[in-house]
Amino acid sequence: MTDTANHQPAPCQDHVLVSDHALVKHKLALLRDVGTSSFQFRALVRELATLLAYEATSDLCLVERDITTPLARTRGRFLAEQIGLVPVLRAGLGMVEAVWELIPDAQVWHIGVYRDEETLEPIYYYNKLPETPTVDICLVLDPMLATGGTAVATIDTLKEWGVGRIRFIGIVAAPEGIRALSEAHPDVDIYLAAIDDHLTPAPSGPDDLPEGYIVPGLGDAGDRQFGTKQD
Ligand code: URA
User: Fold this and answer.
1) What is the CATH number for 47?
2) Residue 76 domain-assigned (yes or no)
3) Which mutation among 41, 93, 144, 171 tests ligand 1's pocket best, with the greatest number of atoms within 8 A of CB?
4) pLDDT tens-digit map of 161-188
5) Could you tell me if residue 130 is inside a domain?
6) How many Cα atoms within 13 Å fall on the side-chain side of residue 207?
C-alpha cells in the first residue's frame, strides 16, 4: 500500500507481522472486491484466519511424550498450553471456527467491549470470564484493526483477568490502529494480511463516508459477513 501525503506512514515494528504468502494476497484481493458475495466473503475470512493463525501459532510451547505408531514406539510433540480464542464482536466471530479447526482444544471466550470515542473509557456490555484465567495464551481475533480502541480495551480486560501472553490476529489494519495497539500493549504481537493507507475522517457533508473506515479496506466486515449491509 502507498501512503498519501496527508497520512503518516504505517509503523514498521518487529512485533507486526504482515504475511507475505501468495495465497493470503490472492484471498485478500477477493475479499476486498465489492462484488464478492456474503457467502464468498465468509469463506475468505475463514481461509485467511486459518493462514494467519498458522503464522501466529508457529512458536507455541510444545511438550514431548511417548507415542506408539503402528510400527514403533517414538516421541511426539504436543501443544503444552491452554489456548484461548477471543473474537472481537461481531466481525471476529467469523474467524473463530477456522482457528478452532486448527486448535480443537482451545477455549472460546466472549468479551463485549468498545471504547467510547470521546471519553476513551472502555464500555463493557458482556463479560463471562471466570474470576481467574483458564488459559495461558489468548489469540484475539478481529478482521479489522481500525482505530484500535476495541482491541486495546479487549486486551486490557484479558490482562486484568491475568492472561500473560496475548497475540492479535487481524486481516486489514490502519496505521492508526497499529500505533494505538502498539503503544498500549507493546508486548502483543500483531499478525495481519495487510496494512492499509488510513482511516476515513469525520464526514463534512451528507455524501461523505462515515468516520473510522479503513481505506482502501474492505468496507464493514461485520455487515459483509452477516449480510446486513445497508445501502
Ligand atoms: N470496521 C470495519 O468493519 N471496517 C472498517 O473499515 C473499519 C472498522
Assistant:
1) 3.40.50.2020
2) no
3) 144
4) 999 999 999 999 999 999 999 999 999 9
5) yes
6) 0
Ligand 1 centroid from CA 142, angstroms: 10
1 lies in a domain?
Answer: no
Strand 107-108 and strand 214-215: the pairing is unpaired
C-alpha cell at 147: 482505530
Number of domains making up the chain: 1
- Rg of the chain (C-alpha set): 19
pTM of the model: 0.91
Which residue range is the domain that position 121 belongs to? Answer: 16-58+84-226
pLDDT tens per residue, range 75-125:
999 999 999 999 999 999 999 999 999 999 999 999 998 767 667 677 889
- Looking at residue 186, its amino acid is P
Peptide bond into 216 cis (omega under 30): yes
